[in-house]
Design goal:
37% of the residues are buried. The longest helix has 16 residues. Helix content is 42%, strand content 17%. Helix 7 crosses helix 9. Strand 3 and strand 4 form a beta hairpin. The protein has two domains: 152 residues, Rossmann fold (3-Layer(aba) Sandwich); 88 residues. It is an alpha/beta fold. The strands form three sheets. Strands 2-5-8-1-9 form a five-stranded parallel β-sheet. Strands 3-4 form a two-stranded antiparallel sheet. Strands 6-7 form a two-stranded antiparallel ribbon. It binds adenosine-5'-diphosphate. The site of adenosine-5'-diphosphate has 17 residues, from helix 2, helix 7 and helix 9.
Length: 260
């Protein structure tokens, strides 16, 4: 997919520079960080900037090497080979983005090994073919380290194939700018939403698996912008997605009501 309009992206660290250098050196990039911190947006932004085609695969537990590389499909009376997104990206010198790589099946990691080291070769076993990636091809993956503690980890041998960039929540001013730009609310409301986000993030004693992401604040802003009541917007876009525990919900709703 080639994006027409430049996707808005507010840099939060040195990720733009790191990207450029990883690309120049043909090194794969791993974006680490909690959900909703702008990793996918960053990739879309960079793909646009570099005028590159972007293939994104949202990995889940059933995602296999075949899904990425390709498979034979039956077309009428014939069996024809169909390239998967990884093969297409390698052939076209595009960007491949594997979102949540740790979720994928282990054969995915095996399939990308030779592609993510100095060889930059993709083996198409079923076709008996190997393709060497052009200098234009770039491999990017994302990974959420904290989440589901322990069981979907990335092996050190895999992690060490990537240049890694940590994504965290932006600082307050940057986050206000993002919420404003993405939702259309004014500065005052964006500021209140970000304040709520920061407050809840600091409530570590609640033991939430995932805390308030920029995405949730943007969503709340969008609801407010189209006219939903402010408190209700925050309740449904920020508080409810965080937990199903009744006591925690009540405590968070009380807190939010005081803040907006
Ligand atoms: P991730 O891939 O880390 O889960 P996304 O890239 O999907 O997160 O970001 C979720 C939403 O949050 C985006 O659609 C965008 O509205 C907003 N967002 C988060 N960080 C940024 C940023 N730095 N610049 C612009 N928008 C951002």
């Amino acid at each position: 997919m080639l994006l027409e309009k430049e996707p808005f992206y507010k840099p939060v660290g040195q990720e733009l520079e790191i990207f450029e250098h990883a690309f120049k050196n043909r090194l794969p990039l791993l974006l680490k960080g909690p959900t909703g911190t702008g990793k996918s947006r960053f990739v879309e932004h960079m793909a646009h900037k570099k005028k590159k085609e972007l293939f994104t695969v949202a990995c889940h537990e059933e995602t296999s090497a075949t899904d990425l590389i390709g498979r034979y499909i039956i077309k009428g009376a014939e069996t024809v080979w169909q390239d998967g997104p990884l093969t297409k990206a390698v052939r076209n010198g595009a960007i491949l983005y594997l979102d949540e790589i740790a979720e994928a099946r282990p054969d995915v990691i095996v399939a990308i090994h030779s592609l993510t080291d100095f060889r930059r070769i993709l083996y198409l076993d079923k076709l008996g073919e190997e393709i060497t990636a052009s200098d234009e091809f770039m491999f990017i993956a994302s990974f959420n380290p904290g989440y589901q503690r322990g069981f979907k980890e990335l092996k050190p041998s895999t992690r060490q194939r990537f240049v890694s960039v940590g994504f965290e929540y932006p600082d307050t001013d940057a986050e206000i700018e993002i919420v404003r730009a993405e939702s259309g609310v004014d500065h005052d409301i964006a500021k209140k939403l970000v304040k709520i986000g920061v407050k809840i993030r600091n409530l570590t004693e609640l033991g939430l698996t995932e805390t308030v992401s920029t995405r949730l604040l943007v969503d709340a802003g969008k609801l407010i912008h189209t006219g939903l009541a402010k408190r209700l917007s925050v309740e449904v876009a920020v508080v409810e997605p965080l937990t199903d525990d009744e006591d925690t919900l009540l405590a968070l709703k009380d807190l939010v009501n005081l803040m907006i």
